[in-house]
Amino acid sequence: MRIAIVGGGLGGLTLARILHRRGVDATVYEREASRSARSQGGSLDLHPESGQHALAEAGLADGFRSLARPQGEEHRILDPTGRTLIHHEPQPGSFSGRPEIDRSALRDLLLDSLPADTVAWGHRLAAATPRPGGGWELTFHGGHRAGCDILIGADGARSVVRPLLIDVQLSSVAMLVELTIEDVDRRHPDLAELVGPGNLWCVGVSQILAAQRLGDGNLRVGISVPAGSIGSKRALLDLFADWSPRLTALIEAGDGAPTPRLIETMPLGTRWATRPDVTLIGDAAHLMPPVGEGANQAMLDAAELAAELAAHLAADPGSAIRKYEEAMFARIHPIAEMSARVQAMMLSPTAADDIVRFFSRT
């Protein structure tokens, strides 16, 4: 039984690792040329009930603990004047909460746990065609072909696999503009102190200026505004002209040009009719606003799908996919609703008051 996983992000690699640990082989087809082809982004907090649970199923809990930063869970929320609204400090050295880990470090942990030939690099899926006897013929850019019996789309927001199951229109909800400040402790100690060891949110009227500490000594700065076009650092500084210079210094200190990214979501309640030989995990299945659940839910998808496939692959793989999807749809719906509420709240005119109330009751 040949299993093809399209996409070598955190969800796809977690799925491949847990399947491998249970004696099931799979091939991961990844469009990037190598693991170092591009930056993997900032850090993320792994939740005990989802991301950390998946790593435990993958046998990588100790590896995670060696790389994670419990102090990264510290969270500071300020208003545009620099006044502190919320300051959450985790228990020192405790892994009981949601410790941070750099995405690149987590991806490397997963890659290093797999046989060397598991990931086929430089394979960007162009089309998947049903075979007369079942399964799929995969065609990749450049002309390479491969066959599989089960196809799993872990290929993100603009999934090529998703249209095999459902036609979905994505909606734009915000614009995220990112900057990096390198070697912040040495070059900008004042900004290092402002952000602290974890995450900083500065919340204004339909604007958020955020920063997070990375394990490599850099800061990753993110500016969230309603969907639109922002092309330069000067335009960003003009947008935040009435904010405290102490905060906008995060924009001025950014190395290189800003990188804009449109934030898109899938409609709430998206689901499809089950097919016995193809399914989706992660953003391909349930793209939602990036408020802390995306990677965690992708990894939990992987753990739950791997468990079903390992139990039913030989006798009834279609049943494994159906059981996984039924549980996933039920689990994701309230999480997607919550994520949409938080995204709307963060970019509302009353965001500061709303966020203080939200964190005060959680």
TrEMBL record:
Domain FAD-binding: 3-326
Key words of the record: FAD, Flavoprotein, Monooxygenase, Oxidoreductase
SUPFAM superfamilies registered for this protein in UniProt: FAD/NAD(P)-binding domain
InterPro entries referenced in this protein's UniProt entry, alphabetically: FAD-bd, FAD/NAD-bd_sf
Record-level Gene Ontology MF annotations: FAD binding; monooxygenase activity
Pfam families the record matches: FAD_binding_3
Keyword Repressor: no
Keyword match rRNA-binding: no
TM stretches of this protein: none
PANTHER family: FAD DEPENDENT OXIDOREDUCTASE DOMAIN-CONTAINING PROTEIN, MONOOXYGENASE ASQM-RELATED
Protein name stated in the entry: FAD-dependent oxidoreductase
Organism: Virgisporangium aurantiacum
